[in-house]
Amino acid sequence: MRLKISHRTEYQYDAPLSYALQRLRLFPKSDPAQDVVEWALSIEGAREEVRYDDSFGNDTRLLSIDGTPHTIAIAASGVVETKDTSGVSGRHTGLAPLWLFCQETPLTAPGPGVAALVETVRGDEAVERLHALMGLVREGVSYVTGATSAVTTAEEALAQGQGVCQDHAHIFLSAARSMGFPARYVSGYLRLDDIDEQTASHAWAEAHVEGVGWIGFDCSNGISPDERYVRVATGRDYRDAMPVMGIRLGQAEEQLAVQISVEQ
User: Fold this and answer.
1) I need a labelling partner for 122 at 20 to 30 A (CA). Which of 1, 60, 90, 178 fits?
2) Looking at the domain 88-238, which fold is it?
3) Is the pTM here over 0.85, yes or no?
4) What's the pLDDT tens digit per position in 139-195?
5) At the topology level of CATH, where does 2-82+244-263 sit?
């Protein structure tokens, strides 16, 4: 499937900024499941200072403000050719060792809720157990926009039974690691049926299975990623893979607007 993607993030301030830094992970890479045909970035109110691949292999850009802007706008767009690999994204690569993805983080630390969830997972084979886990997470945590925030932990989302794709991914990561699987967070895009315009990017989880490699699990939709998905960044949790992250100094009030379009 050939997907055309546009992702614009705009920050508006009621006073000029004197200092701000932004870190971008908005550049997908070609892999066994996707081929990046073209991709471009445009920036208003800031300038690119440096680019590098982080320890997880993500294309990362650092921006600083240019002058004293009232607006910072970041627009990424391009075309990606995808194919259905039944969720398998390939062997492990990059500088981060597999054991790093077995370690908990503040957002994915397991507690009583995750422990109880793991106890209910059934299946003889590794992939069968992971699919069963995906189903349990989807059944136990309803998709409700606004029910959680960027700092909600896996345990908190599981306890309240509501969340979004970020929470589903964190719960899956916490449980999969408790079951002995290296697991990582994936941020990217999803082509929705009959819907081009979106207000947020998508997220899912991947678990590493010996002899197979990384396999994706989208608990929000109850499937392994297919040709409608585009992978952009990975990490131990949301903070490692979030598309835009920044800091700023000053008292200016901020308004954020995000516009995403994913078209076939």
Assistant:
1) 90
2) C8orf32 fold (3.10.620)
3) yes
4) 999 999 999 999 999 999 999 999 999 999 999 999 999 999 999 999 999 999 878
5) Immunoglobulin-like (2.60.40)
